[in-house]
Amino acid sequence: MTDSTRRVASAAAVNTGLLLVMAATAMPLFGVGISYIPTHRGYGWIYALGALLILVGRLIRPSVKEQPLRVKRLVRMELWTALIFITGAVFIFTVRGNDWIAFTMAGGVLTVYTAIMLTRSEKKP
Prior knowledge:
The protein is built from four helices and no strands. The protein is mostly helical. It is elongated.
């Protein structure tokens, strides 16, 4: 698999996963559910699928061995962000309450931060 193919597949998986996480987070806020999926009215499974896609997308990303140390750390932070979303999915199914929303917020903030900082570090010579 070439680097450009890996980059495209990684971006597609991460973007789809983030959209699924966003949709699953909005479902209980707006009172929308899927009636034929009994567990958590369906949003738990949608969230878990999105978190898994984010993790897969982060794992298949091309290597950054030649990049500066800052970029390597930001890419590593992106992987931890995916693990935070996975933890949120686990909390949906195991803990009663809304603790999973805290993990979703933390993952979202870190995702935005790493996206901004990676863009800034790529522009510098």
